[in-house]
Design goal:
The protein is α+β, with helices and mostly antiparallel strands. It is built from 15 helices and 19 strands.
Amino acid sequence: MSTKSTLKKVAIYTLGAFSGIALSLSVQSFAAEKDKKDNEALPVQTIRTMAEVYGQIKANYYQDKPDAELFEGAMKGMVSDLDPHSEYMDKKGYAEMKESTSGEFGGLGMEIGQEDGFVKVVAPIEDTPAERAGVKSGDFIVKIDNTSTRGLTVSEAVKKMRGKPGTKITLTLSRKNADKPIVVNLTRAIIKVKSVRHHLLEKDYGYIRVSQFQERTVAALNEAAQALVKENKGPLKGIILDLRDDPGGLLNGAVGVSAAFLQPDVTVVSTKGRNKKEGMVLKATAEDYITTSGKDPLAGLPAELKTIPMTVLINAGSASASEIVAGALQDHKRAVVVGTQSFGKGSVQTLIPLSGGSAVKLTTALYYTPNDRSIQAQGIVPDVEVKDKDRAFESREADLVGHIGNPLGGQDVNSSTETPADAEIKADKDKSKKDKDEDISSRRIPNPAKDDQLRKALDLVKNPAEWQKSLGLAAKKPAPKKDADKDSKK
């Protein structure tokens, strides 16, 4: 196996809070790299100060803390201060991270991040206790049972929320435009995430929903496409891919889903590391999305999926892997992207196992679309913007404290300041339980009559001339510019 191929196989597991095992780097390799830097001096004074802090704690702190606890705290702080996605994990935390890619685990079912010292919901996962309880993208989890979440890392919050299936847990949420904290009572369950759903919207026009990128997502998408053709009793004339509130997952899943709709061997995504050093380039080819031996999960895919009119739905809950797919299909002018601007997580996290069973998750590179655009802190801009009047608040990567800015310049895109009209907010508060249950149900049985974004996406694929005109419209929109005054104050 070539070095290039090996690196691709290794790197294919790296993505956000659903990262799998990636690359084991030895201390010697770091030392060898460091030896090449002739002018880089060891920070002796900083190390001396750190030793002094350690000595003062051991001598004067009111409790005698074990050395292992002190050094683990120091490692956590050192890594977490880098950016919102880098993290040191103890042995238990590392095991839970690996478990999250399997598609089955005990918990509540949501993707979370951290902002302003609190835990924040990126997106609830479909058909889980969190979604059924009404947890929404952008909610702050301020308490887990009676414990404040201030200062908790994402892994620590996950540990508190996971537990034995059937046990109860209470979350206190803070939501923009809500008059008071929202308290929700949930029952933990085995989270069996069905990452792909499909529906024939009408004769000749199919809909595929990907809620998360997992080990079986590419094969499941192929199965869904074949089922749609069978139900339609003939080839499809248009397809809609729904990536709204898809928080991401495994990179090979993103490459495989993109490959289902793109011509063979075109670029899907590339990475650049420190000093913009070129990293891997992943293409729409089986060797870049197959991670285990066996047949191609896209074998037997209906041929028309690579040519028929296609739209992709995104919103602020579309992050990471889903942004890679949307960006690739947009850059190759294969699909019209419809909805609102995506989350903006364009960084690569590599999970590096350490001695003793612990691990460190480090941001090692940034993702770039085929046209060399960076997703980081800006996201994917839709070709056709259609807002969701029921979403009062959008949460984005640029809201996270310590986030990495976009390397290509331009203004970072944070939370939308736009809110629905007061009447719409009041109407949402007055919704009956029946209405809310219908909202949740509609996410699994798509209904263009009640979903403005879906209706526009369907209209476009049914009108090939209009669809053709809409391809690549986002590229013609002016890029956001940084505020010179703000920059001068930094």
